Amino acid sequence: MTDDPETRTTTRAVRPYVITGGRAGAGGAPLSWETLVTATGTAAPETLQPEYRMILTHCRGLLSVAEVAAHLGQPPSVVQVLLADLLDWGLILSRPPVPRAERADAATLRKVLHGLESRL
């Protein structure tokens, strides 16, 4: 048996269901993975568990739910529950993703890309 860190299998010390208090979903509609969140700057209570504090640290600017999940190393479903709690407590703000109809179409984006390429 080797002690090579690259071949060793690791397990998370705390299971996701423990982090969410056994909840599999938030009370309301879940935040989509593209939803942007940011910390409000309100002082967090001292009793806040570490995962919530890590979220607030990372959310000093706008981050998507998926990005927060990546920073925490947790599944997006777990992060959605934690973010819903922070949203309910007024510690973060959320901005829904831009609806598909408001996004630029692919043809317009290609024209912009070609215009930029021609200037280089």
Automatic annotation (TrEMBL):
Organism listed in the record: Streptomyces wuyuanensis
InterPro entries, alphabetized: DUF742
Protein name listed in UniProt: DUF742 domain-containing protein
Matching PANTHER family: DUF742 DOMAIN-CONTAINING PROTEIN
Pfam families membership: DUF742 (PF05331)
